[in-house]
Design a protein that fits this description.
Largest sheet: 5 strands, parallel
Number of helices: 9
Structural class: alpha/beta
Strand order of the largest sheet: 4-1-7-8-9
Strand content: 5-15%
Low-confidence stretches: 39-59, 95-111
Helix content: 40-55%
């Protein structure tokens, strides 16, 4: 059976997701630019679990949506917001007519809705991270979607969680739940070590800079499609990255694929 196509992507999280116009917007722009620069390419298949399969698609059709609440943990999103309903509605959009409301069978039944889940681990406990991630993964799969875990990063204000601890807990969670991991935190730590001159964080040193959000979007793209984006500098420019050099942008894009390849 052919692997399902990713034509829909839902992003859930907090300000780490919606900063700099939203990682979803960066992802969508990148996908449209990549698709327009790719023709008749071979499909690249990436296995997330035995049942969750993602692959490349040359179609420019991509629909993204975001549900992000500032400062929210997955626990908060689960217990006090409509996040679960939003996931269900996104994975199973309905057609409304005078006589009936029916799910569009060509969406969820083909498994082509990806749900990118972002926790802000320094802002919550390890226990609550694993507990509520499990809930969201369960609901995503129940709705016919494919969950992808967006690994965040630690910061100085909350020092209890180190880089090593945060990365390990995300790896453990992805392995335990059998889901694909987008190792944004791993890439950010590597970039900080290799290129300390590169401005990947906002002045508060917690949120990403535009280039940091671009790095996150490329990582997620690589995790979802199993290949780097096929963009061209003359037709695509990352949002908000006008002050960065082409060399800096190329560095983070190549780093993203290097990290994802090593994590596959």
């Amino acid at each position: 059976m052919a692997a399902p196509r990713c034509k829909r992507a839902f992003f859930i999280g907090n300000s780490l997701t919606y900063y700099n116009s939203g990682v979803d917007k960066h992802f969508s722009n990148m996908r449209h630019a990549s698709a327009s620069n790719t023709s008749n390419s071979a499909s690249v298949e990436q296995t997330a679990t035995n049942t969750d399969r993602l692959d490349s698609n040359t179609s420019a059709s991509i629909v993204t949506e975001r549900f992000a609440v500032g400062g929210a943990s997955l626990e908060h999103l689960w217990t006090t917001t409509s996040a679960v309903d939003r996931i269900r509605n996104f994975c199973n959009p309905v057609e409304i007519s005078a006589s009936c409301i029916e799910p569009k069978k060509d969406i969820a039944s083909k498994g082509n809705a990806v749900v990118v889940i972002q926790e802000d681990l320094p802002e919550t406990s390890v226990y609550n991270f694993h507990k509520h991630l499990k809930y969201f993964v369960r609901e995503t799969r129940s709705a016919g979607g494919i969950p992808v875990l967006y690994m965040c990063w630690p910061y100085q204000r909350l020092k209890w969680c180190t880089w090593d601890e945060l990365i390990l807990e995300h790896q453990k969670a992805a392995h335990a739940l059998g889901i694909k991991l987008a190792p944004v935190g791993t890439a950010l730590r590597t970039a900080v070590q290799e290129r300390p001159d590169l401005n990947l964080f906002a002045p508060d040193q917690e949120h990403p800079s535009p280039l940091g959000t671009h790095l996150a979007a490329v990582i997620i793209y690589c995790a979802v499609y199993g290949e780097p984006p096929h963009t061209k500098k003359d037709t695509y420019a990352p949002l908000g990255c006008e002050d960065y050099s082409d060399a800096d942008i190329t560095y983070v894009e190549e780093l993203a694929w290097r990290i994802c390849s090593a994590s596959a």
